[in-house]
Every structure is written in C-alpha cells, then in structure tokens.
Write a structure and sequence with these properties.
By secondary structure, this protein is mostly beta strands. Among the domains are: about 20-220, Jelly Rolls; about 280-310, no CATH class; about 605-665, no CATH class. It is built from five helices and 54 strands. The longest helix is centred in the middle third of the chain and has 36 residues, at about 230-265. It holds the Pfam family EGF_3.
Length: about 675
Amino acid sequence: MDVILVLWVCLSAARSVVGFGMDPDLQLDIITELDLVNTTVGVTQVSGLHNTSKAFLFQDVEREIHAAPHVTEKLIQLFRNKSEFTFLATVQQKPSTSGVVLSVRELEHSYFELESSGLRDEIRYHYRFNGKSRTEAFPYRMADGQWHKIALSISASHLLLHVDCNRIYERVIDPPETNLPPGSNLWLGQRNQKHGLLKGVVQDVKVIFMPNGYITQCPNLNRTCPTCSDFLSLVQGIMDLQELLAKMTAKLNYAETRLSQLENCHCEKTCQVNGLIYRDQDSWVDDDHCRNCTCKSGAVECRRMSCPPLNCSPDSLPVHIGGQCCKACRPKCIYGGKVLAEGHRILTKSCRECRGGVLVKVTEVCPPLNCSAEDHILPEDQCCSVCRGHNFCAEGPKCGENSECKNWNTKATCECKSGYISIQGDSAYCEDIDECAAKMHYCHANTVCVNLPGSYRCDCIPGYIRVDDFSCTEHDECGSAQHTCDDNAICTNTVRGHSCTCKPGYVGNGTICRAFCEEGCRYGGTCVAPNKCLCPSGFTGSHCEQDIDECTEGIIECHNHSRCVNLPGWYHCECRSGFHDNGTYSLSGESCIDIDECALRTHTCWNDSACINLAGGFDCLCPSGPSCSGDCPHEGGLKRNGQVWTLKEDRCSVLLQGWKDILPTDCL
C-alpha cells in the first residue's frame, strides 16, 4: 500500500505541473467550421466585442444554422470518452429575449445545449445522463443587450460557470453522456429548425476538450489546481495499481508454492573450479594458496592447510620441496662450518649444491651482467652473481595470499601482512589474527569489537555515539536535537535511543504530526493548529463555514456604474442597467461604460419623438405640436402621459410631455 501511495504522490506531482497551452487538435471553432461568412439567410456579419475574430448578428427570422456532416462527425469524435470539456462564447443578446446559443442533439434529445432565458433571467444547461434528460439552471441576466463572455466547464461530475471572467456558479452534477449517437447534429443560435432562435450577436464560439478550458477566454484566472477529472484519473490509476498488486501477489504465492515443491526434490549441486567439475562433498588441494577445498551444495568452501609439526633429526633441516605447501625434513650439508639446507648452493672452486646431505658439483652458466664489477653481489645460497638491486622476489620464494615478498640485499623473504601471523615459521603462509578474541584491540567501554580480515573495528553499542575510532559516549538524542521527532511532538530519551509522541491536539506517528480540527475545515480551509482553521479568501468562521459578504460589509467598493454581487467566497462588480463592460472586465467595475441606446437604436422612442442619451439610460423628447400625444411605449405596453410606476430597481418613472424620465423614489 505504501508503494501505491508513493506512486499516487508522483502522479499528483506530474499532473500538477502539466502545461496549460491549448492543443489546436483538441478544440473546435464553431463559427469557422460552420463557414458563417457564406451564410446569407438570417445571419449578418457585424462588429463584435473585439476585431480579432468575426462576429455575426442572428436575426429574428426563420433560419437553419447547423453543421455539415463532416463537422458533426469531427465533434462526435472529440466528445467520445471525454470527461473534460469547456464551451466558450461571447454573446450580446437582445434584451428580454430567449434563445439557444449552441445545441448538440439527436432528434428530440439534447446531449449538450446552452440556453439563455431573458424571460426568467437564467442560463440553462441541458444534457443527458443514463439515457435521461437533465437540466441545470443558473439565475443570471444575460439577455440585457450587453456583451458577455460565457465559459461552461465540465470535469466529470464537476461544473464551473464563468461569466465575464468571474466564477458565478460551481456545482456537482451527474456526469454527462459524451458518446454521441450517429445522426447527432450541431446547431448554432437555435435548438432546431424552428425553436430556440437566438436574437443577438455571437462571437468566439468554441468547444475545448482539455482541462481548464476557460483559460483560453480568461488567461489571468487561477489555473494551478487539478480538476475533478484529474482527481478521478488518479483514483483510477490507484485502482489499476491495486489490481496489478493483487495479480503480482497471486503470482508470488504460486511461485512460493512451486519452490516449496522443488525443495523436496534432490538435485545434486556441483562446483566448477578452473575448468574442473567437482561433485558435492568432493575435496581437493588448492596448491596455489595452500588450502583444502570442499564442494558443499554447489558452493566452494576452502580452509588454510594445516601442516603437521616436524621433529627433524640433528642431521636434517625442514625445507620446502617441489613447491609443496608443507615443509619436509631433509639431510643438511656442512662446509667450512656453514650449514646448508637441501637445494642450497655454495661457490668454492666450483659451484656445489646440497643434495641428500652431500655437496654435489653442478655446472651452471652464469648470464652476463649489465653493471660494473663493484656492483656485483653474490646472493645467499647461489653460485652466480647478480647486479646490486636485483629483484629476488621475481624469482621466488613463493608467498601465500596473506603474506608479501620483501627484497633484501642478497635474498628475498616472505613477511606476513599487518594483522596476520605466520603458520609455518617462515611467513610464507599466514593466518588472520583475531584481535578481539586475543584481547589485542584498543576498543574502550560502550563499544563492541568486531574482527575483520587483517584488522578489527570498534562499533558503538545502541544509544551511544562515536568519539573516535576506539571510543563512544552516551548520547542525549533529544537534547542535542539529533532526533527524528516532529516539531509538534514530545521527544523522550530511552535506554538505547528515543521515542516520539505527538503533542495534544496533533495526530501522527511522532515523526510526522499534523494539527487536528475536530469539526474539520470547510471550503478548502487548512487546519494549522488544534481546532484552528486558516480560511481561504472569502470565508471566515472557526471552521471556515461562513461566506464573507464583501458587498454588505463594505469590503469592496464598486464603481458607481456597477453594483456589487456577492458570490460564495468571492464577488464581482456587475454593470448596472444602461451600462456594459468595455471588454477589460476590471474587478472594481471601472470598465463599465454607458450604452448609447440612441446611437445603437436600441431605444423605444416613437418615430415622432427624439432620443436623448443619458448616463445609464435615455429620454424620448416629443416635439411640440398637436401630433404628439406624450404617451410612451414601455416593456411591450403603453404608458400615458404623466403616469407613474415603480421599476424593479425600486425607482419610479414619470412621464412628462412624451419623454420618459427616470427618477429615484425619494424624488417624488
């Protein structure tokens, strides 16, 4: 399980650093794909919110704006098995009208449809789940004649709605069906041939099939948090790893069963040494290192050869014969008071060698020497001279693996390496000295002597720290801050170490302790101390359970052309009636500018009256004369000259001489 958690953290880190550049193959520009430039019925190209893309006016006439079959098929393939997509559009909808911005449907079933109702002042999202229709409604007035940027993002069961780069709504919904059936069609500005006709201007209509697609429309929005689909992918990854772990466990159990069965079988294990194969329990002598070796269950075990003690007679000496590991007694020779062992030579008038206790004349041709006569030296027990500095070790004697040859002026000898002792008297073959058993070490108290080949080591007993190579001292791990306890844990010294216990109000294993809040922290709050939450911006309370109303508490002061609208954990300044955003969408509402209803011809003045633009509204001024009745049309009705009524914003209108004047109620 720890392996799975480590992999989960790695996956989280990997996903958290994925770039947010939009792949053009994972987005569909609806206006471009539908080729609206060449559409003549019901659609006219006009100026949009900006000049970087084309905008089109959808007129109040019968029209059929839908995609060609190849475009619909492209959309179907993009939607297939996708759990994450975003719909983007920039819309200026005629006031108090209703219509569908985009619809993907098959016969009577809407798989994706975004509708704006000016009658109920709400945005609706229609989709299907498990073969049934679903609708999510969001109270918001979009049909007000102003430009609005809309971004509807779906991530599995998580829905985000941004309007004018403000997060207006966030919900958990049933995950929509994205595998569209054959015969589906894509409609722009309407539901089908005769229903849901949108009246207004549309620009930048796109569908993005990537996480956080709203970044395309609002690049400055936060984009560091993983999406719901990212989380579900990680959960699926963990489930896959758990399944893989279960399969591996089953295979290991099967392998253990087979191994236990094989252990009951007898298979002779052999050893191969220098090209020779020895059967189990075979023994042989390793002459190169003077060891007795045995093959045991396929492994070679060697021990140094133990030579028997020699009790040579007075007329003999122990010598190595024929490269054998152990010495043997051989008769000695005496010449001029000098004792010679078997094989040694002496130079008289001729060269003589001791053989069987007798000096035998031998013929030896000495090689020429490449040195001056004063540098000639005669080695011990030899007849031919050599140059001074001659390497006797290159000619012998034969030293064992734990001894080394050393040159002298006239001969070479074997010497045991440091930490070894001779086992044959001439140091040709040496064995390790167990300094610990022989009490030849310098380890002090609170240490343990550990024998090593040719040496030893002093290890500290648990709970002590090293002072030098030979001594250790008791260690206060807690006091010296050399412990593994968390800052919010209590360190306690023990006999041979220490223990860690989390402080009250913290939970964990002592090495890692985290604060504990009994009722938890809501809306993304973090528990930073016992029962103390650090709330994200926009929330307050002991458990971050209360939304801060930035509007009523006066934390935010919107520009007088806008009004403050409180949102969960946030707010935004919405342009007042008669104003619209200039496209910069400033947080304080400074980007709200007056709508010139007269110039845009969105006023309701009769033909025989003159439109006068005002800040946030307009006036209709009737010319004097008998033809002007002074009456004014309003919201589909007719108001008589001088009639007073109350508006939704708790203001009143006074009709004076054929033009409409908007005054606060306290003016009357």
